[in-house]
Every structure is written in C-alpha cells, then in structure tokens.
Amino acid sequence: MSGHVNIACLQTKAFADVEDALNHALELATEAVGNGAQLLVLPEYAGGLKTEGRFFDPPVYAEDSHPFVKGIQSFAKVNNIWFVLGSVAIKADGPKFLNQTFVIDNAGMVVARYSKLHLFDIDISPTQSYKESEKVQHGADAVVVDTPFGKLGLSICYDLRFPGLYRDLAQAGAEILLVPAAFTKKTGEAHWHILNQARAIENGAFVIAACAVDKIPGGGESYGHSLVIDPWGEILADGGTTTGVVQCTINIDEVKQTRARIPSLSHDKPYTLALQPKQHESVA
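^ that's the sequence the OP posted. Answer follows.
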C-alpha cells in the first residue's frame, strides 16, 4: 500500500525496571495515538536498560513471558495501530540473550522479529568502553517485512555503521529503514545525523531512527535526536535531547520517485579487488 503515513518515534529514556519502562513508553504512545499516529517506533532496549561497567544489563525474559512485549501487543490491539518495538532482551539458547526487534500489527500479533547482527564492542575513550558481545548472541538474518505502510527493513543501532546491510534490505524491497538505537552521546554527537542521512540517500529510502535519550542507570548516556529522514536525505523531524513524541507524516510514494530519479540500487557492477604491490624505491 502506498500513500501518506503518520509515524511517531517515542523518544524514551532508560529505566532499570521493565514496569517503569513500559509505563513510560505507553504514556508517550497514548499521546502519539491521540495525535493520529498509525505506526509507532520505540528505541533500542526500550524494555529497560542499565549498565554494569562495560556491559549492558537489560531485564531479560523469554518472549512469551516478557511483560514489555505483552504490554505493547495489548496496546497495539486496543488502539488498532502498528508498533515497532525497537528492541528488548530475549532469552537465547545458552548463557547469552538476543537484542531483538519486534514488529507488531494492529491485532497485537508479532509479524516479524530481528536479532541485532552487529554488536557494540568499542573503546570510546580510555575510560569508556562497551562489550555487548560478552552477553548478547548476535543474529544471523536480515529481515524485510511487508506492512500496510510499505516494506520495512529492520536494523538496530550499531548496524548503522554497516552500509552493506541497508543496501541488501533496500534491494530486497525495503522502503522504510528502521534504526532503533541507544546511541551513546559521544558517538551520537559525532556521527548520528550524518550516518542516518547517508543510509537514506544511498538507498532512496525513508529512515526512521528512534533513539533513547538521557542518562542510563549505572552509567552512560543516550544521545536522543530521534530522526525521520526522507529518501533525499532531508531531516523531517528531530527529537532533540528531551523525552517525548517525534511525529510527522511521510509520503511513501517518494521512495519510488527518488529511486526513479537516481536508480543506483540497480547499477551494481561486479568487480575484483586489485591490491598493487608496494613499489620500492631503487637504491642508488
């Protein structure tokens, strides 16, 4: 289906407790629905998050008993809206958990799941580092899901730095690229806007990037600035640095129009990579 879609990013802050996180999310969701939202998008680790040193420590549950997932499913059904649950921590087979996105339809049913592929193992500074892979099991599948609002390509946070993933999603038909995140303040200030704009421009797609904001219990801070970006790279909405609803209407037909103007998704050419040997200067 094509046409206009009212989209709302819910720019939440982190809570250590899942019930507090759910109450916060539903308060913003109620506001968004009251303003006509048809598709709601939450940030990464929306179901609760705290840190312990270099480790993320969110509340972890099995999917069928996760109170945050259940609460969002109920809200979607009662309000007849679609919901992209940015991500929550889901028990995996073994000692680790999955950092997993859920797409929930207006009947409250999970229609797609995506487990984060690229894990956040970085040293931001001599005193600040993160090691997501110590506790998180990475995913193995890229996901495109058909909805009444167009085809959604799913990703999470650190995935944003891997443009090949988004090209694959776009070439598989994705018209809206989802980037739920809890981007750190330091890396966000440097790279958040330009990376999201690049992914939109490269793929002629809308980018909907809901990012958490404010301090994280235990240490760290998320950048905020949830974004809605059109296929030409223009920022249509920016959530700034406070909690709230970041809402606007997009026209999905702009994807087809932009890709017709610059059809680069169909212009890939095979190539080989030639590594030239180092040229040594002759010695006189």
